[in-house]
Sec-independent protein translocase protein TatC (Microbacterium aurantiacum), 253 residues
Amino acid sequence: MSLGQHLVELKKRLIISAIGLVAAMVVAFLITDPVLSLITEPIREVAESRGEAGRVELMFSTVTSGFDLRLRMAFALGILMAAPIWMWQIWAFVTPGLTRKEIRYTIGFVGAAVPLFFAGCATGLLVMPNIVTLMAGFVPDGAAAFYDASYYYDFVFKLLLFVGVAYVLPVFLVALNLAGIISGRAILGGWRIAVIVAVVFAALATPPADVASTFILAGIMTVLFFAAAGLSLLFDRRRARRDQALLPPEIAA
């Protein structure tokens, strides 16, 4: 394909992706109520535990803040809901330039990264109430705890995104190994740092009193790291055998 044909194809893929995103945003806007109820449940739990209903609430500080929040939620949810559409468009645009082997690697990468990302988001959603409860414990007795809606949403969104990306990082390590950038031995050699990072992250994401959640989260991240290291070592061994088989007999001997 010529450069002009590539640009036409890119424009077509972008238009389809944009239409899918807009349609998903419209649907997402209609379901912001249950989503908002889900992510604000910790606030209601804090109010109930403190016995201060009316003094622990989500606060909308401007006239348009309610609409702005729903619009931002619709955009984020729309991206997730429209993911099959825009990911397929990216795939359809890139595939003609990939070899059969690269296509297999890409399918494997996406097939592993997507469920891991959503699993990470689900984990973040599980630990979020613990974080909100812990932080609320620092509010002095008798003081009101009003959470700004925009700030609270940013906190939840960034937490879910951060944990989701943390779960996907082992897949990136495997991808770097397949690209020949880093060896499986080098990945495994950094296990001490990986374990420390996992424990520190889990400790920050869970309250000190909830030791079980800390160890579960750290354990999951550690297992994912060692799984990535194991796969990379396996790929290195296969690559070495293949290279050995391609050598002339006299050199191989």
The chain has a mean pLDDT of 82. The chain has one domain: 3-240.
